[in-house]
Design brief:
The chain has 3 domains: 184 residues, Rossmann fold, CATH 3.40.50.980; 157 residues, ANL, N-terminal domain (Rossmann fold, 3-Layer(aba) Sandwich); 98 residues, ANL, C-terminal domain (GMP Synthetase, Chain A, domain 3, 2-Layer Sandwich). Helices cover 30% and strands 25% of the residues. β3, α3 and β4 form a beta-alpha-beta unit. α1 runs parallel beside α8, α4 packs across α5 and α7 crosses α8. The longest helix has 17 residues. The N and C termini lie far apart (71 Å).
C-alpha cells in the first residue's frame, strides 16, 4: 500500500481560508474600521504575515499568546498562526496582570501579541516571571500607531520571503483556550485543528451559517464562542464579516443598519441592552434574519419581545463549553417557544447524555450531569493530567452542568453544579427562579444567587435591575414568586442595583455578586 504525502489530505484552519479564497476571491471577507479585505486579499495577507512571523523566529508548535480586542489584526493573526503551525493562546483582556501572567507561564508562551490599548497590561504581565521574550503589535478597529519596541503587524505582513514548509497535520494542536473558570486556577483546553474543524461543520449545518450571511462579530474574539462558533465557520463557508470591538447598542445598532447585517450573535444580556436602547425603534433592522444567543438561556419574556419587535429574526440557542470547541447542543428557531428554556439536542457531530453519578442515563425529567462524546472535544487540559482524567471519567466528557432530558431528547440545563443553591435542605435551581422573576414587566435583568444564612444555610437572593422608570418593591417580587412556585424556591432577599457584573462576552459574573453581597 503506497503512502501519500501528508499535505495531500490535510485540512487545517490555515488550509480552509486558502480554499475559500479560491472559491470566492473577489468577495468581501473582512471589514473592520476603515479596513476592507476580499478573500483573495485576506488569504494573501495571512500568508505574508505567517512568513513574517517565521522570519521573526516563530516556528511550528510555538505558543503565541494574544491579548487584544477585536480587530482585523486579530483576525489575520489567528489564521497566520494556524498556517504557520504555531499554537494560539487567546487571553481575556479583562484579567489583571498577575492573572494574565499565570496563563503566559502555564502555556509557555514566548511571544505575546497585543494592541495599543492593552500594551501596558501586556508588558506588566510579561514582566511577572514569564517566558515572554517578544511582542507583536496588532492594529485596532480605530486608527492607532505601532507601539515602540514591538514587532509591527504591518512590517511583518510586508514580508516577501516564502512561507516555510511545515510538517503540520490536522491532528496537531491549534490552540490552548483557558477556561474563565471558578476554580483555583484556569485550565487550558488543548484543541487540535481537526477538533475545531469538525465543530465548524456542526456550526454550518445546525446553526445554518451560510455563504450569503453578512455577519457582525462584536463579542470578544478571545472567547471560543465568537471565534469558533461564528467567525471561523463564517470564513470556512465564505460569509462577509464585519468586526467591531464595541458591543454597545450605540455602536451595534448603527452598524447593523449601515452594513445590512443579516446574522448576529450575543448573549441574552446584550440582546436585552439592544431592546432597551432608545435607538432600537429608530434603526432599520429589516435585513437582520438570524439571531444567535448563548452563555445563558434567553428569558422567555425577552424571547417573546424579540419575536414581537423583530418578527423576521429566527433565533438559535447554542450551548456548549470551551472543552468541546465549544458547540455541543442547539435549540433551533422552530423550538424556541415550543421548548422555552431548553438547550436543545446534540448537534451533528456530538453525542450527549444526562447521567447519574454511576454514569446511568437518568429518567425523563430527572436531574443529572450532562456528558458528551465528540470529535470536537479537546485532547485534554494542558499540563494537567489529573483534571483531564476527572473530566473524561467513564469515557465521556463531564460538562459540570446539571440538566434534564425530555421524552423527545431535548436537554434543559438546570444549573452549574456549583450554582445549585442548597436552601433549607432543598435544592433550588437559580435559573428557575430567574425565569419566574422575568415574568414581572418591571424587570430588565436579574441574577439569582445563594448567600450564606444562619437559618437557610444558603438564602435564595435575587439581584435585580429594573427597567427605566419602573418601580417594584422587595415584597412585591417575593409575593409574585410565592404565588407561582414553592415557598422554599422564592427569594429570601432582594437587592436592587443599576447593573449586573458581566465579562466582555456578556456572561453574568455570579461569583462577583456573591463576593459583593456576602456580608
Amino acid at each position: 500500500m503506497s503512502t501519500l504525502p501528508p499535505a495531500i489530505r490535510r485540512q487545517t484552519i490555515g488550509d480552509l481560508l486558502r480554499r475559500t479564497a479560491q472559491r470566492l476571491p473577489a468577495k468581501l471577507a473582512i471589514a473592520c474600521g476603515d479596513t476592507r479585505w476580499t478573500y483573495a486579499e485576506f488569504d494573501a495577507l495571512v500568508s505574508r504575515l505567517a512568513a513574517g512571523l517565521a522570519q521573526h523566529g516563530i516556528a511550528c508548535g510555538d505558543k503565541v499568546a494574544v491579548l487584544a480586542r477585536n480587530s482585523h489584526g486579530f483576525a489575520a493573526l489567528r489564521f497566520a498562526l494556524a498556517r504557520l503551525g504555531a499554537v494560539l493562546v487567546p487571553i481575556n483582556f479583562m484579567l489583571k496582570a498577575d492573572e494574565v501572567a499565570y496563563i503566559l507561564r502555564h502555556a509557555g508562551a514566548r511571544t505575546l501579541a497585543t494592541d495599543t490599548g492593552l500594551a501596558d497590561l501586556a508588558r506588566a504581565a510579561a514582566a511577572l516571571d514569564t517566558q515572554v521574550q517578544d511582542f507583536v503589535w496588532l492594529p485596532s478597529e480605530d486608527p492607532s500607531e505601532p507601539v515602540a519596541g514591538m514587532a509591527s503587524f504591518h512590517e511583518l505582513a510586508a514580508c516577501t520571503a516564502a512561507l516555510p514548509e511545515t510538517p503540520l497535520q490536522s491532528t496537531d494542536l491549534a490552540q490552548i483556550v483557558y477556561t474563565s473558570g471558578t476554580e483555583s486556577s484556569p485550565k487550558g483546553a488543548m484543541l487540535t485543528h481537526d477538533a475545531v474543524l469538525w465543530q465548524y461543520v456542526s456550526c454550518c449545518i445546525n446553526a445554518e451559517i451560510a455563504e450569503h450571511d453578512v455577519a457582525l462579530h462584536a463579542l470578544p474574539l478571545y472567547h471560543c464562542a465568537q471565534l469558533d462558533v461564528f467567525f471561523g465557520p463564517a470564513i470556512y463557508i465564505g460569509s462577509t464579516n464585519h468586526i467591531t470591538a464595541k458591543p454597545t447598542p450605540d455602536n451595534l445598532l448603527p452598524m447593523m443598519a449601515a452594513h445590512g447585517i443579516t446574522s448576529f450573535f450575543a448573549p441574552p444580556t446584550v440582546w436585552i441592552a439592544l431592546l432597551r436602547s432608545p435607538l432600537f425603534d429608530q434603526t432599520d433592522l429589516s435585513r437582520l434574519a438570524k439571531g444567535y444567543y448563548g452563555a445563558s438561556i434567553m428569558p422567555v419574556e425577552v424571547m417573546k419581545e424579540i419575536a414581537r419587535r423583530l418578527p423576521r429574526v429566527r433565533l438559535w440557542n447554542l450551548y456548549g463549553q470551551t472543552e468541546i470547541a465549544p458547540l455541543a447542543t442547539m435549540l433551533g428557531p422552530d423550538d424556541q417557544l415550543r421548548k422555552p428554556g431548553s438547550a436543545g439536542r446534540a448537534v451533528l457531530n456530538v453525542e450527549t447524555r444526562v447521567v447519574d453519578d454511576q454514569m446511568r442515563d437518568v429518567a425523563v425529567g430527572e436531574v443529572g450531569e450532562i456528558v458528551h462524546r465528540s470529535p470536537h472535544l479537546m485532547q485534554g487540559y494542558f499540563h494537567d493530567d489529573e483534571r483531564t482524567r476527572a473530566a473524561f471519567e467513564g469515557g465521556w466528557f463531564h460538562s459540570g452542568d446539571l440538566g434534564t432530558i425530555d421524552d423527545e431528547g431535548y436537554i434543559s440545563v438546570v444549573d452549574r453544579k456549583k450554582d445549585m443553591i442548597k436552601s433549607g435542605g432543598e435544592n433550588v435551581a437559580s435559573r428557575e427562579v430567574e425565569e419566574m422573576i422575568y415574568r414581572l414587566p418591571q424587570v430588565s435583568e436579574v441574577a439569582v444567587i445563594g448567600l450564606p444564612d444562619p437559618k437557610w444555610v444558603e438564602a435564595v437572593t435575587a439581584v435585580v435591575v429594573l427597567k427605566a422608570g419602573q418601580e417594584l418593591t422587595e415584597q412585591q417580587l417575593i409575593d409574585h414568586c410565592t404565588t407561582h412556585m414553592a415557598h422554599f424556591k422564592a427569594p429570601k432577599r432582594v437587592v436592587f442595583t443599576d447593573a449586573l457584573p458581566k465579562n466582555p462576552s456578556g456572561k453574568l459574573l455570579k461569583r462577583e455578586l456573591r463576593k459583593a453581597y456576602v456580608d
